UniProtKB/TrEMBL annotation:
Record's GO cellular component terms: beta-galactosidase complex
Protein's name in the database: Beta-galactosidase
Family annotation (CDD domains): A4_beta-galactosidase_middle_domain
Example GO BP: galactose metabolic process
Protein family per UniProt: Belongs to the glycosyl hydrolase 42 family.
Keywords in alphabetical order: Glycosidase, Hydrolase, Metal-binding, Zinc
C-alpha cells in the first residue's frame, strides 16, 4: 500500500481505443486509483424504467484488469434530461422565485420526492452490481454538494424541519423575535422560505429577519445531507463495509461541513485555491477538512495538475508547484492525491481545464513529466506515512453558524468577512510553524494548550464553560471583536458584550464604531510599536483584564484595543479591532511564547514546516519552500529524506530550492 494516486477519469467520453493509451500512460505515471462514474446518471439510466451498466462495466473491468483501484461514484451530481422533462418538479427554484429548466449541474431540488427516490435507487443498483468487487475501494456520493432551492417542496420540508427543531410555534416566534414588524406566525403554513420575494432585498445577505434566514441556511445544508444519507443507506443494503464519502470544497459557505461529520466514513475535498500564491489558504483548508473527522487522514479528491477553467483568469501552475501543493496536502493529513482530470475532455465547459493527459495524448509534456515524477516519489515513500496523524496543541475554532449570522447581520459592519478574519489568525500560526487543528465549536478542547476563536459571534451550548476550562487549567484562549454577541437563535444576549465570555475575558464592550476600510486607527503596544486597526473599533472597559495595546486616535484614544485577563492558571486575550497582519502576528506570537509552542525551526520566509506522526511513533517532518528563493535551515536531528534516501545529520545545513520539498523521517 501507498498513498493513493490518480483522479477523475471519464472514459465514457471517449472511444474505447483511447482507453489503451490512457492505461499505458497511467502506468508510466504510477497512477493506481481512478474516480469513475461521477456524471454518468444519464448513461446508466437512459429512461426511468431502464438501467444500462454496459459501459460502466467495461470501465470498471478494464481498470481492475490493469491493477488499478476505483473510487466509484453514484453519478447523481447532475440529473438526466429525461428526468427533468418527465418530472419538472425536480428542477430548482432560485432565490428570485424562477423555476429552472433542464441544464447545468447542481440542478436538483434536494427536497423533491422524485429526486430522492430515483437518486437513491441509482445508488442502490450500483451497489448491488459492484459491491464486493475487489477493485472498488470507496464510494463517492454526489459531487460537490451546493446551491439552494426555494420551491414548494422545500417550503414544505422547511416547515417540517422547523417543527422538529422548535416543537411549537410559540418557541419559533420567540426564537425569530417575530413581534418585530408584526411577523408573529399563527400557523406553520404561513411560513415561507426567505427569498427575494419575502424577507430579502439586495441579495441573500440582506434580510429583515436574521432568524428565518439563518434557519433556512441550516435547513438547506441538512436537506443536502439527507440526499447523501439516502444514497449511503441504499449503498449499505448491499455493501456494509466499503467507505463512503463525498467531495467537499474547503471553506464553502452554503454547506456546514461539520454537520456532515458523523455520516462520512472519511473526509475528502477539492483544492482549487483563489490564486496561485496562497499556501496558507490551502493549509487552512486542509486542516479544516482533517478536523471534520477528528484529525483522521483525508483524501485530496481533486486538484488540477496545471490550470483550472472555471474563473475569468486561470493561472498556470508554475514548474514544481503541482508537486509542492500535492506534498503540502500530504503534510496536512492527506492519504490520497488525486486530480481532476485524467484526460482532457474535448468539449463543453471543462475542455480547457488542466489534465494529466492533454487532448493530443502526449507523454512528453511538462505536466505529464511532473505527474510521473510525483508518482515515482509517492512510490518511493511507500506506506510509511499512511494513517499518520497530525499532532497539534493549538486549536482554531471555525463555526458556520457564526459565519452565517455575522454576514447576514445589519450591523455593525458588512465589510467584516468571517473566514478572512479567521485566516488572519491561522496565518500567524502557520508562519510560526505551529501544528493546528481547525475544529468545530462542539469539539473536545481538553487536549489543547491554546484555543483561538476569532469572531466567535455566536456562542452556543456549553462553549463558554469549555473555553473557560481551557484557561482555568493553564491554557490560553484568544478571541476577537464581534465575539459573544448572539445566542444560537441569533438573538443578542441580554448582558454586556461579550455576553457569556465576559467573565473569562475580564472586559465589557461599552460601544463599537464601524468605519470604512480606508480608515485606520493605529494600535500602540507597550513598547510603543504600533499596528493598524480597521473596520470595527470596540470601546472596551476592563473588568479585571490588563491592557496590552491601546487605540491612538479618535475620542476613544487611550482605551484598550488588546487585553489579557488572568483566569485560573491561564489567560484569555481579546482583540477589539481587526488588526493588520503584523499586529495579529505579534499577539499570536506572545500567546505561543507563553507555552513554548514555536515550530521546530526558526521561521524562514516562504518555508512551511508540518509534521505527521505514525501510529508506531515514527515522526515525519515536511519542509516545503513556497518561496521563489532558496532557503536554508539547520537540522535539529539525524534524519532520512524519504524522497531521495539522503541522510541528514543533526546540526547540518538543509538547503531547499524554490518550490522544493523534503520529507524527513
Amino acid at each position: 500500500m501507498k498513498l493513493r494516486y490518480g483522479g477523475d477519469y471519464n472514459p465514457e467520453q471517449w472511444p474505447e481505443k483511447v482507453w489503451d493509451d490512457d492505461h499505458r500512460l497511467f502506468g508510466a505515471a504510477r497512477i493506481d486509483t481512478l474516480t469513475v462514474g461521477v456524471f454518468t446518471w444519464g448513461l446508466t439510466q437512459p429512461a426511468e424504467d431502464t438501467y444500462d451498466f454496459t459501459i460502466l462495466d467495461r470501465i470498471v473491468e478494464r481498470a481492475a484488469a490493469e491493477g488499478r483501484q476505483i473510487c466509484l461514484a453514484t453519478g447523481t451530481g447532475a440529473h438526466p434530461a429525461w428526468l427533468a422533462r418527465k418530472h419538472p418538479e425536480v428542477t430548482r427554484v432560485d432565490f428570485e422565485g424562477r423555476r429552472h429548466r433542464y441544464g447545468q449541474r447542481h440542478n436538483s431540488c434536494p427536497s423533491s420526492p422524485v429526486f430522492r427516490r430515483l437518486s437513491a435507487e441509482m445508488a442502490r443498483r450500483l451497489a448491488a452490481r459492484y459491491a464486493g468487487h475487489p477493485a472498488v475501494v470507496a464510494w463517492h456520493v454526489g459531487n460537490e454538494y451546493g446551491g439552494a432551492c426555494y420551491c414548494e417542496h422545500c417550503a414544505a420540508a422547511f416547515r417540517i424541519w422547523l417543527r422538529d427543531r422548535y416543537g411549537s410555534l410559540e418557541r419559533l416566534n420567540k426564537a425569530w423575535y417575530t413581534t418585530f414588524w408584526s411577523h408573529t406566525f399563527g400557523d406553520w403554513d404561513e411560513i415561507e422560505p426567505p427569498s427575494a420575494l419575502t424577507e430579502h432585498w439586495r441579495g441573500p445577505d440582506h434580510t429583515a429577519f436574521q432568524g428565518i434566514t439563518l434557519d433556512y441556511l441550516r435547513f438547506m445544508s441538512e436537506a443536502m445531507l439527507t440526499n447523501f444519507r439516502d444514497e449511503k443507506a441504499a449503498i449499505r443494503e448491499s455493501d456494509p463495509d466499503t467507505p463512503v464519502t463525498t467531495n467537499f470544497m474547503g471553506v464553502y459557505r452554503p454547506i456546514d461541513y461539520h454537520r456532515w461529520a458523523a455520516d462520512l466514513d472519511f473526509a475528502s475535498w477539492d483544492n482549487y485555491p483563489p490564486g496561485d500564491d496562497l499556501p496558507e489558504w490551502m493549509a487552512f483548508w486542509h486542516d479544516l477538512i482533517r478536523g471534520i473527522k477528528g484529525g483522521a487522514p483525508f483524501w485530496l479528491m481533486e486538484q488540477t495538475p496545471s490550470t483550472t477553467a472555471c474563473r475569468d483568469v486561470n493561472p498556470l501552475k508554475r514548474p514544481g508547484v503541482m508537486r509542492l501543493w500535492s506534498w503540502q496536502a500530504v503534510a496536512h493529513g492527506a492519504d490520497a492525491v488525486l486530480f481532476f482530470q485524467m484526460r482532457a475532455g474535448k468539449g463543453a465547459s471543462e475542455k480547457y481545464h488542466g489534465a494529466v493527459i492533454g487532448h493530443a495524448g502526449r507523454d512528453d509534456t511538462r505536466v505529464f513529466r511532473e505527474v510521473a515524477e510525483l508518482g515515482a516519489e509517492l512510490e518511493q515513500a511507500g506506506d510509511a506515512i499512511l494513517g499518520a496523524r497530525t499532532p497539534a496543541r493549538v486549536a482554531v475554532l471555525f463555526d458556520w453558524d457564526s459565519w452565517w449570522a455575522l454576514e447576514i447581520s445589519d450591523g455593525p459592519s458588512r465589510l467584516v468577512r468571517y473566514h478572512q478574519v479567521v485566516l488572519d489568525y491561522y496565518r500567524a500560526l502557520w508562519t510560526a510553524g505551529v501544528g493546528v487543528d481547525v475544529l468545530p465549536v462542539t469539539a473536545d478542547l481538553s487536549g489543547y494548550e491554546v484555543v483561538v476563536a476569532p469572531v466567535l459571534h455566536m456562542v452556543k451550548g456549553d462553549l463558554a464553560a469549555r473555553l473557560a476550562e481551557v484557561a482555568r487549567r493553564g491554557g490560553t484562549v484568544l478571541t476577537t471583536f464581534l465575539s459573544g454577541r448572539v445566542d444560537e437563535d441569533d438573538n443578542a444576549f441580554l448582558a454586556d458584550v461579550p455576553g457569556p465570555l465576559g467573565e473569562l475575558l475580564g472586559i465589557r464592550v461599552d460601544e463599537w464604531d464601524a468605519r470604512p476600510a480606508e480608515v485606520i486607527n493605529p494600535v500602540r503596544f507597550g513598547d510603543d510599536t504600533t499596528a493598524g486597526g480597521s473596520l470595527v473599533f470596540e470601546i472596551v472597559i476592563p473588568q479585571g483584564a490588563e491592557t496590552v495595546a491601546t487605540y491612538t486616535h479618535d475620542f476613544y484614544a487611550g482605551s484598550p484595543a488588546v487585553t489579557r485577563n488572568r483566569f485560573g492558571e491561564g489567560e484569555a486575550w481579546y482583540v477589539a479591532t481587526r488588526l493588520d497582519q503584523p499586529g495579529v502576528d505579534r499577539v499570536v506570537g506572545q500567546v505561543l511564547d507563553r507555552h513554548g509552542l514555536r515550530g521546530p525551526f526558526p521561521p524562514v520566509p516562504g518555508v512551511e514546516v508540518a509534521e505527521r506522526v505514525a501510529p508506531d511513533g515514527r515522526r515525519f517532518t515536511f519542509l516545503l519552500n513556497h518561496g521563489s528563493e532558496p532557503a536554508e535551515l539547520v537540522a535539529r536531528a539525524d534524519a532520512t529524506d524519504l524522497l531521495t534516501g539522503d541522510r541528514v545529520t543533526r546540526g547540518s545545513t538543509i538547503r531547499l530550492a524554490p518550490k522544493d520539498v523534503l520529507l524527513l523521517q
